[in-house]
Structures are given as structure tokens and as C-alpha cells.
């Protein structure tokens, strides 16, 4: 077994350990974004709010300045009105516009990056209604979807793995959660056919998480194989330190 093969196995093993660690504890807090896609969407929204607030402040001060010139001063009342207008603008634009939570039929639209961001935002909106074990898996799914989205950006849209991901993201995940939410809250802890609704939801999301991990690994194998082939070529083409030492020894 050569070094490249060992490195490939280590990468795959580390991916599995990372998934296990995330499921057993993780680092997310309840109010955090579950992934980079949803976090980026929220940052974009905050930038938009900041621009609106800056525009409002500029309008307020320009208006106050014009009023001061026309009225030869705005007096204490005018200053207080300006202060109140600034505070009102700060309140409004610290809360609006809200980040738009996508609807279920919008999850599969757009490129992989957009699909991941929409799905993460949708999952975050569902998280408060889920039992703690299921909410933890949802947080882990955000991390997995980030990695998967990056891989899908270099994969043809008609690739079997890409179609499988869209099915997982656009159908299985939302169907599982929506079916759970149809169960009245006071019945979710009661056993039905051997399991409670909470247990079935957690088990189902766990299986989906495992499937997402499997697809990620399948896509990663191609990149790892390419890396191994390139490494072998470079070793053959240019040789390693041992080969150079042998050649130098023979030339003496």
C-alpha cells in the first residue's frame, strides 16, 4: 500500500469521524446558522439593512439641514425630532427586511450553492418545532450540505449523484419534517406501531444524514482517485528522493 492510498483512506476515515463527532455533540448553538449557505444569506440581508439605514440617515440629515436653512435653525424641538427619526430608522432597519424563508417548492431551484442556502434556511425555520435529537441532526445536515454543495458545483447537473441530492434535499427532507409536524404535539410522544413520532423523525433524519454522507464520499472518491493518479505520475515523471540518491550513487 503506497502513501497516497494511505492518505486517501485517512481522508475518508476522518470524514466519518467528523460526522460521528457532530452527531454526538457538535458545536452549534440553538440560534446559530446551521451552515455557511444560510449564514451567507443572512449576511447579505444585514448588508441590505445597513444600506437602507445609511440612506435613511442621509435623508434625515439632509432634510434637517434644508429645514434649518429655510427656518434659520430647527431649535430644540427639531433636534429632538431628528433624534427620534434616527432611533426609529435604527429600529426599523435592525428588524426589516426579514430574511425570506423559502417555500418547499423552491428548495430545488437554482444552482447547488443556491439550493444549499435555501435548504439550510428552510431547515432553520423548522428547527424550533423539532425534538432536541432531531434538531441536532438538522444542525449536522447544514455542515454536510455545505460540503456537498461545493462538490456539486463541479459536477454536471445530469450526474446521477446530483439528481440524487436534489431528491434528498427537495423531497425526502421536507416530506419527513412536514409529516412529523402534521402529528398533533400532544401525540408526538406516544408510541404508535412500536415507536413515537419523535423517535421516527430522529431515525429518518439520521438515515438521510447518512445518505448525504454516502453521496459526499462517492463524489470525493473521484477527486481522491485523480489526486492519486497525479501523484503517481509525478513520482514516475520526476522521481522521489530515493530515486535521485540511487541515480547519484550509480554515477560515482
Topology overview:
Layout: H1 3-24, H2 36-71, H3 75-95, H4 112-126, H5 132-152, H6 160-181, E1 191-192, E2 195-196, H7 197-238, H8 241-251
Antiparallel strand pairs: 1-2
Q: How does this model look, in words?
A:
The protein is mostly helical. It has a domain of 135 residues. Helix content is 75%, strand content 2%. The chain is built from eight helices and two strands. It has a two-stranded antiparallel sheet with strand order 1-2. Helix 2 packs across helix 4 and helix 6 runs antiparallel to helix 7. 19% of the residues are buried. The N terminus is likely disordered.
List its salient traits.
252 residues; mainly alpha; two-stranded antiparallel ribbon; 75% helix; disordered N terminus
The total strand number stands at: 2
Low-confidence stretches: 1-28
Termini separation:
32 Å
SS-based class: mainly alpha
Question: What would you say about this model in short?
Answer:
With 252 residues, this protein is mainly α.
